[in-house]
User: What shape does this take?
Amino acid sequence: MKTKLVTMEAIKEAGEIIRARELVAFPTETVYGLGADAMNSEAAAKIYAAKGRPSDNPLIVHIADMEQVDMVAKEVPEAARKIMEAFWPGPLTVILNKKECVPDGTTGGLKTVAVRMPSHPGAQALIRESGRVIAAPSANTSGRPSPTTAQHVLEDMDGKIPMILDGGPVGIGIESTIVDMTGEVPMILRPGYITKAMLESVVGTVQVDPAVSGKQMPEHVVAKAPGMKYRHYAPKGQLTLVEGDPEKVVDKINQMALEKEKEGYRVGIIGTDETIGRYHAGICRSIGSRKDPDSVAANLYSILRECDALELDYMYSESFFEQGLGNAIMNRMLKAAGYHLITV
Ligand code: TXA
Ligand code: MG
Assistant: This one.
């Protein structure tokens, strides 16, 4: 199949492709999505094939209007309504009990459905133009870092899907916060740009799934979002994170990187604007500024992809603030590192 990389001017054709039960990759404010008609099993199945994704990993249904929630959700609890009104359109996915009409092909056989109203004009245009609600995972090959540019999507999906809508680089750079609203207390299944504190300011107490909150590999707990159990976001080489006193972190990273370089491996270092000038082994990249967590989130996946392109064997990275957005950043970095974390 020939893959067209087009600007948003091709939105009419994109809508037609969705209605013809084929796939279109499109920009959202978090990461690029790989979209299909959410109410059609055959279309959803094509997503799994293109990504090489396990079929028990459910998709998020993207909507453009509040009324579309009722097309897919059996009921919307009061607390869910409140957070939807507070944070939609935006980087928040809400888990609700599903209606019969939502195919198992979209929800991985679950009785619940994940719903999100993206704020990106490109995503909204595709949903409106197609006249459908759109099932979309991140538009990467399963196991690779999520795409934050149309070029990343092309790297993974060339020849596998008919169209990629290029809306430029995304703004946020990590996937939406997922919150399960089907239980007594709202539970965060995947940390993201909308933080626990932000949710609590609207609905009171919110819990975090233990499988996504720790620094250790969650071996004894089963992640409630099926997708969170897979090795994810991962570059091909081995990434090691180092945390602790900032001076010691720089020294430790330099020491480990130098050792591997002497052994003949291809080595990379991920530092910050504040420290990058102090590294002196391998290929060094700044992920952003410690004063600006948004910049770190925005650069994370493109740096991990660059590590792959450079065919690095070993990568060493500073670790990040575990408050607010830092929680989401560390969650993705720990997964990318297979939970390799050294404390100095
Ligand atoms: O920001 C985002 O959410 C992006 C953009 C494209 O919208 N999408 C995205 O989709 O990250 P994906 O498929 O890569 O991640 C969806 C996550 C998976 O971990 C999946 O297991 C979980 O959502 N999920 C989907 N439906 C669920 C459900 N009914 N219950 C629990 N978890 C669910
Ligand atoms: Mg994904």
Q: What stands out?
A: The mean pLDDT is 95. DSSP finds twelve helices and 16 strands in the chain. Residues 137-138, 146 surround magnesium ion (ligand 2) (CB under 6 Å). The first helix runs from residue 11 to 19.
